[in-house]
Design brief:
216 residues, eight-stranded antiparallel sheet, globular, single chain, 3 helices, three-stranded antiparallel sheet, mainly beta
Length: 216
């Protein structure tokens, strides 16, 4: 079974798509996008990143997708700017990032998870702004080796309406596999968890659904 949930709180709508079949991310996303476009009277950008809130009932969703062993990222700084020609540029921040752009991102996450983003935090998570039809932010949560679980959704630091309690709609959507060579980050591969973690032969760059290259 595949499930897709999209929420636009500001517009007062929510869309849920259910299919009694697996690996149906593309068709159900098109259905939800079409419904949202019709209701809102505008179309979503053609280059929107793969930040859907799609989940499936699979026991192996979080397994690495790629055959072979990927070098660990221990001690390597994964923060910085990443780029993909189709999906544009994104900046990954850590709890200790100090740039103005990262500060606003961290402030948003701190509103919903203050303990993990405290000044003394040792969290290895990564955070970024990720503006799409159904999200404002993404969070990379460390799982093992060079792999992270990506969660996407919207964050409401001041709550919504009369309820001023901060909340978010973050849910797991994909995995990230970082590639480090000679102590330098080449980039990371993005794989939607809808596909069930099937291993593929080849490098992360060759077999990932989306490859983001590290800039600088």
């Amino acid at each position: 079974m595949s499930t897709f949930v999209a929420v636009a709180v500001e517009d007062g709508i929510g869309i849920v798509a259910l299919t009694n079949a697996d690996t149906k991310a593309v068709p159900i996303q098109k259905i939800v996008d079409k419904a949202a476009e019709k209701f809102l009277g505008s179309s979503s950008p053609s280059n929107s990143p793969p930040a859907t809130t799609t989940v499936t009932r699979r026991s192996n969703l979080l397994l690495p997708r790629h055959a072979g062993v990927t070098p660990r990222t221990d001690g390597v700084d994964l923060t910085g700017t990443y780029y993909n020609a189709g999906y544009g540029t994104g900046v990954l921040c850590s709890v200790h990032s100090t740039s103005p752009s990262c500060k606003s991102v961290l402030d948003a996450f701190r509103s919903i998870d203050p303990s993990s983003l405290s000044p003394t935090s040792t969290s290895t998570d990564l955070f970024a702004s990720w503006i799409t039809l159904v999200s404002t932010h993404i969070r990379f949560t460390y799982t093992n080796s060079s792999n992270y679980l990506i969660s996407a959704g919207s964050i409401y630091p001041q709550g919504y309406g009369k309820n001023t309690t901060a909340f978010s709609t973050l849910v797991p959507i994909a995995t990230a596999d970082f590639v480090v060579k000679n102590g330098k980050v080449d980039g990371f591969g993005w794989d939607n968890i809808i596909d069930g973690g099937v291993k593929r032969s080849g490098s992360v760059e060759e077999t990932s659904e989306v490859w983001f290259v590290k800039q600088g």
